[in-house]
Design a protein that fits this description.
alpha/beta; 7-stranded mixed β-sheet; Aspartate Aminotransferase, domain 2; globular; Aspartate Aminotransferase, domain 1; binds pyridoxal-5'-phosphate; 4-stranded antiparallel β-sheet
Amino acid sequence: MITETAPYTTIDIDQIRLDFPILNQKVNGKQLVYFDNAATTQKPSQVIDAISEYYEGYNANIHRGIHHLAEKATSAYEATRATVKTFLNAKSIEEIIFTRGVTESINLVANSYGRHNIRSGDEIIISTMEHHSNIVPWQMLCEEKGAILKVIPINEQGEILFDEYLKLLSSRTKIVSIVYVSNALGTINPVKDIIEAAHNVGAVVLIDGAQSTSHLDIDVQDLDCDFYTFSAHKLYGPTGVGVLYGKKNILNDMPPYQGGGEMIKEVSFTKTTYNELPYKFEAGTPNIADTIALKAAIDYISKLGKSTLAVYENELLAYCTSQLLEINGLRLIGEADQKVSIASFVIDGVHHQDLAILLDGDGVAVRTGHHCTQPLMARMGILGTTRASFSKKKKKSEIDLFINSLNKAIKMLK
Ligand code: PLP
């Protein structure tokens, strides 16, 4: 989704950058240019403050206590759940489960829904561009149950071959688990069509929203996905907390994932009964501070307005892509028609790790390697890429710094 012209001036990037204290520093004597947002985003003061306010003002365990601090902490924690419900347009707060992040959410679904419903000979479909977190849990499930993992192929641009996907679907398909936006390519997958086709054969669909949630407006009811998951840390929130959305009727039929405090109604040595949704899936003391701060992150991003900022991000991507394409021997990895602001590339005769070291010397932080997508790298015939991923707080001048530093590094390495 590259836009040639954008209402650049309607966004005050300098003002936004003031919210991110970490950006105001030098690395190796140069102004930090942080282009590793797909790995994790930086945190605005609003999020950092929410964490310190909790620890300084009302640190207490939640749900169980009736004293002032416990009640305050519980209501702040549950306020995040209500915010997430609105943010994803879920039908009810019972559909919002807090996890440690996307990886834990997918493991939860594979272990609970998967182990309960998958039989020998059943099929699970993923795509070539999945993150390892959306491959390995399904492989483990298939191994245990004698089920079969099928993989949707992609083209050279890094787009799913939809007709091939349709051919893989059958009455044996029980689960389709697919990434909305690829972390290595930036591709935006046509998840609505993917979901509809899966439902036509009676399969449930999980959407890995690790990368999509910060870039696209998400409406789980409109998508009609059965599960949707995201991690707070890729959304200007803290690490260690994420969300699993699931349709209530499906979650109700699923057995608990972990046992312990909070997920029970009553425990005796002969029988334990389980708590209502969503607590049935939230065993033990959760990550209270960071969950509270997730609300601050969502409020922050909602106030800025995702769709307005997407236009700005697309302009940055178009600008960066045009500059990259002028570099001799550079090959973009991921040229989908529909993509977010991720530029992944390889350069003839230059190893990406060497490049990253030289860029770091100029204060430029990019990610290199396989990006936890080794099967995708194998499909593209490469070992890894250099990936620059932008966010809303980036400036064109930073892309100029990055391109200058890149050209300098290539000269040294060739
Ligand atoms: N899926 C995608 C597409 C990702 O980009 C990532 C993280 O990079 C994950 C899953 C795993 O997310 P987490 O490590 O937050 O669980």
